[in-house]
């Protein structure tokens, strides 16, 4: 596969921290990184100094010289860069979420369906070793029928730099829900084999990011204060699937409780519990063989680089000419749920999830 990856001329759109994070892993994977694009001159200068590749301020110039692109821009700009690439039949690895709004996400999905390029949305947590072990156990029936997931992605103080694009609704599309929540929702539905969704109810809150006395420790960016913060910093939601399966969701950038990254997968024969960041994994069951007893089994596995494994899957799909259309369709399903939670919070009631907004 190394030769195939080397043959795929690849560029990055969005040359900030996440772009460089992807670039390092592309090079480790043996991919031919040939260029990058950013509207910021400083970002272009830093990128070309670090990677010794051509950089552009116009993505069309970059697209003339590549076969594939990794799009790592702020959410609002996913659509123009991804759609233009897909219309050229380029391969696209698009950082999550699919877009900043449902309407924008639907346009990307339409372009992906019409393109000959492979399109993959970057839900990297699927590739965690602990997650793959749980998925394998589910697939072989060890958990019985999986009926409910408890999904937590909660930081105690982790707003990613107030004043950055992350904290501006017009650019990001939302706050903690669209940043962390999409990971938790995708992972839950992935383990449930992406059932159809019937309805969601949720509440989003802005309780900390807009305060002068927010206790900032560290996160992705510098803290510029509450002036440019108009998004949610936490959300609670309940997702009901058409099959009767359910997901309870807790996400937060900031809240007065210990951080929690625990997922609990409840099945009729056993349950699995894992920590998304630590990959602490255990299985839990009851048994009547001999005296009635409870069984709790810990599993030890090495942590893996999920972004590197995500990239490997993307380039392997390109080499195999595989259709990853379900990646975009599933990302669109996540976007519909996020949109539904925001609508539910605003309306103060449960909302149905259909093929389109409304």
Your description of this structure?
With 358 residues, the chain is of the alpha/beta class. The chain has two domains: 2-125 and 308-323, NAD(P)-binding Rossmann-like Domain (Rossmann fold, 3-Layer(aba) Sandwich); 126-305 and 335-352, Dihydrodipicolinate Reductase, domain 2. 35% of the residues lie in helices and 24% in strands. It has helices at 2-7, 17-29, 41-51, 59-63, 78-87, 102-114, 129-139, 169-172, 176-191, 306-319, 325-347; strands at residues 9-13, 32-37, 54-56, 68-71, 91-95, 119-122, 146-154, 197-205, 234-241, 246-252, 262-267, 271-275, 281-287, 293-299, 351-352. The chain has a nine-stranded mixed β-sheet, covered by helices on one side. A six-stranded parallel β-sheet has the order 3-2-1-4-5-6, with helices on both faces. A hairpin with a 3-residue loop joins β11 and β12 (271-275). The protein is globular and about 70 Å long. The mean pLDDT is 95.
Task: List the main descriptive attributes of the protein structure presented here.
24% strand, 358 residues
Write the layout of secondary structure elements.
Elements: H1 2-7, E1 9-13, H2 17-29, E2 32-37, H3 41-51, E3 54-56, H4 59-63, E4 68-71, H5 78-87, E5 91-95, H6 102-114, E6 119-122, H7 129-139, E7 146-154, H8 169-172, H9 176-191, E8 197-205, E9 234-241, E10 246-252, E11 262-267, E12 271-275, E13 281-287, E14 293-299, H10 306-319, H11 325-347, E15 351-352
Parallel strand pairs: 1-2, 1-4, 2-3, 4-5, 5-6, 7-10
Antiparallel strand pairs: 7-11, 8-9, 8-15, 9-10, 11-12, 12-13, 13-14
Helix pairs in contact: 2-10, 5-6, 6-11, 9-11
């Amino acid at each position: 596969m190394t030769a195939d990856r080397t043959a795929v001329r690849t560029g990055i759109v969005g040359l900030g921290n996440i772009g460089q994070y992807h670039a390092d892993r592309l090079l480790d994977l043996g991919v031919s990184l040939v260029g990058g694009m950013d509207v910021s001159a400083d970002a272009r200068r830093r990128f070309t100094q670090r990677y010794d590749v051509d950089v552009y301020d116009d993505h069309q110039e970059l697209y003339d010289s590549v076969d594939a692109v990794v799009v790592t821009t702020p959410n609002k700009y996913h659509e123009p860069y991804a759609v233009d690439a897909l219309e050229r039949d380029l391969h696209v690895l698009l950082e999550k979420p699919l877009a900043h709004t449902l309407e924008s996400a639907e346009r990307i999905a339409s372009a992906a369906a019409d393109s000959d390029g492979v399109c993959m949305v970057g839900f990297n947590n699927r590739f965690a070793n602990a997650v793959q072990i749980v998925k394998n156990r589910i697939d072989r029936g060890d958990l019985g029928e999986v009926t409910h997931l408890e999904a937590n992605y909660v930081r105690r103080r982790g707003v990613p730099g107030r004043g950055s694009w992350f904290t501006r609704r017009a650019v990001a599309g939302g706050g903690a829900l669209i940043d962390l929540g999409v990971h938790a929702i995708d992972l839950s539905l992935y383990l449930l084999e992406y059932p159809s969704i019937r309805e969601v109810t949720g509440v989003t809150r802005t309780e900390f990011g807009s305060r002068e006395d927010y206790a900032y420790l560290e996160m992705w960016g510098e803290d510029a204060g509450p002036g440019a913060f108009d998004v949610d910093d936490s959300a609670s939601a309940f997702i009901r699937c058409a099959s009767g399966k359910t997901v309870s969701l807790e996400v937060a950038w900031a809240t007065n409780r210990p951080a929690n990254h625990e997922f609990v997968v409840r099945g009729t024969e056993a349950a699995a519990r894992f920590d998304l960041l630590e990959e602490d994994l255990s299985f839990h069951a009851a048994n009547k063989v001999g005296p009635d007893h409870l069984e709790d089994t810990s599993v030890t596995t090495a942590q893996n680089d999920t972004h590197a494994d995500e990239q490997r899957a993307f380039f392997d799909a390109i080499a195999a000419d595989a259709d990853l259309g379900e990646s975009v369709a599933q990302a669109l399903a996540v976007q519909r749920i996020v949109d539904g939670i925001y609508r539910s919070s605003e309306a103060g009631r449960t909302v149905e999830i259909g093929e389109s907004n409304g």
